[in-house]
Amino acid sequence: MTQSGDHIARRDPGIVMRLKRLGSLHQCRLSFMRSLTRRMAKDSWSFSRPIFDIDDNGVGHAVYTAQGPERTYSLVAFAHDLPPEMRSDRVIATAWDATFTLFDGIPDDADIERLSKNVPLQEAGRVSNSEISVSRANRSVRLWAHFVDALASGRQPDQDKIDAVGYLMRTTAVYGSGKLGAIDREGIADRKELAAPFQAEMLSVFLTRTFARDLVQHMANVKGGDQAVRLDPAIARGLGIGNSTGLGMAPFIVNHPVLFNNWIMAREEAIARVRALKSASESEKALFETVLSRSVVTVDHWRSEHPIQIAKLQGLNADLELLSDHLSSTGLANAYPWDCLMAWAETALSEEGQELVASLILEPYDEIVDGLATCMADSNKDAFVIDGAMRVQEVRALIKECFGWAFDVDWNATVNQARAWYVSEEKLEPRLGERFEEPIEDYEQPLAPARDAVAAFKAMESFDATQEIAAFLLEHPEHRHTVRRAQISAIAPYGEIRDNTISATVRPIDMLRAKLSFFGAICFDPRSDRWVRICMYAGAPYPEELSTANADLWVYPEASA
Amino acid sequence: MSYSLNEMEATAKRATRGAGYSWGLAEEASKAARWLCAQGLDGSAYLVRVLESDLAINPPLHRPKTVEGVWKGENNLCPLAVGSLLSDCAKHLQHTPIEMHNIAVPSMLLPFVAQAARALGSTICVTCDGLLAETNGTALHQNQAFADTATSVIVARSTTVLKPTVHVTRAFPTKESWNSLNQFAHRTYAPATEESRKLGAGAGLSDND
């Protein structure tokens, strides 16, 4: 029986919000994919594929519907015959193997006709407020042909080849929130099923994985005729959907401090609640040990060619051994077992290992954790509004609280401001450049909150500490964005990254991973310091298999696999 | 063509920055344009009128010197600078009306008045050269649109209880104003070079495997 214990404070933002740690986060019970599959199973969503009109060359369209208690959503998929030389994950690509939109309702022929002229063009097309997201995907060259050939010739694909990649298709962008003319987030945020962040995007990707499975089967059937066999459902279950995430996502977490705070704070609150438990029941301990052993399988399957991630994985493997030894010797027998475990991890494990433990201890506690998912959206629109009556000294104190560390940084040193974030003329996507080597400084985006905070703090020195900040802002509009952020930090303590986002050594992949871990991604595979591949929904039930029994822990592969 | 309000907001922010305003004021302007669009007004056209007035070339000429007294500048007042100041001074409105002289595009003040109204939880009345507008932050009541410039604007709390109004969920900017916003926005985009294409987004390992 679980006993409540003393209050344990959430971890200090000064520890949590360092980039190295944010770049080591793992999925947890609160991840958006798992929230979605749990809800769909609990509410008995039904799924269908009313249209699969794809020809022998793999060209055509398909519609997948997901029907919840109040509304139906449809993934409209367009399959294309893409010349291999045009296949690129980069945002500058102009054609893809498949393109998608999540339609609000069930599309009629006129909708399909309209969408067929726009969705395949992606950024060059327009959608309407009947569409919630727009996305695209490319085939994995390594796996696609192998799957088609194997199934066509009557064989199942080779598990080693599958393990090396993990998915048949990877999405390269999923646009929501009003992009390309789609409906605004505000237009759907009050729907129960879409209230948590990114639920529509996660639904789109969930259905896209099904489309990839169906399309590869279709192509194998075309090729093999009577010889072709059906893909073994167990193999299909292990397939995820890949995703390539580029630099464009990194500024998101800086530009949405309240939202990002809500994600981190929900997880930190969950961790604190579990740490505060005085004891754990045998079944709770057993569940933790099960997900831990299943996580060992995940880490074992986790491949990366990138030196940074290779080193981190070595560390994580060593952490898992230490953790195993620690649990064998000390176990979870002490009072406050989870708090003891976390305290030990902080002294013994790398950030990768510490954050894995932090995520795993939440697993036995759906009742005290899952409700926090409702706190993860940002509905506080007026957090944007500056309180001009706040005194200069209060704003300075808020800056010190978040950015105290930044006062020790020499902001005149080249190395500390070597980079600048800018938006390129092409595709209007964020990029990161070398401030002193490229002509980009004039185009710099406000993505260096720490540098700007120190500058604003210094500019306030000549103002009376008791004066209202309105007077300062009247004279110094260049510091307005910083004062806004400082005031937001008072209600969003986890909203600011506590590291230099423009230093010569900044690694945007750390920012990408922080965001993607909340989606529920696994197997982070950086392809440079600025873009990363991940796997989503590997192990998840397909729509027709979804039930309350398999809707949650699918993210952990079976230990025997 | 219709645009999502998020598209309007994002484009307005870039445009305002492109016209030379600080990022903080660009954020204000983008929320303001969005709010006007949600009221069924052409926030895009109003913002373009402000940006085309070149008030950001020498900002101190277009803002009051102090928060106290009647607000006037050496030249006409910029509604983005003064609007932000008005929002910052919301609490002053609790007891004292704010008066200002010689304002460019006074309609652009309305979203900032709305911010102040929400902060105070009260209706606020704007008297602009004899024309009235009232907002409680979400609803806007206005019989006649303000002229392009105003000699005198007085902003004061009001006891009027406003009926809720229906908000528009899409923006319908004129082609001209949308193009103009995008031209201003374009000034914030770094010209693409082969180097930035390769390095800026991080080429790295193969993306076609």
From TrEMBL, chain A:
It comes from the Bacteria. This is Uncharacterized protein. It comes from Tritonibacter litoralis.
Automatic annotation (TrEMBL), chain B:
Pfam families: DUF3726. InterPro entries: DUF3726 (IPR022201). It comes from the Bacteria. This is DUF3726 domain-containing protein. It comes from Tritonibacter litoralis.
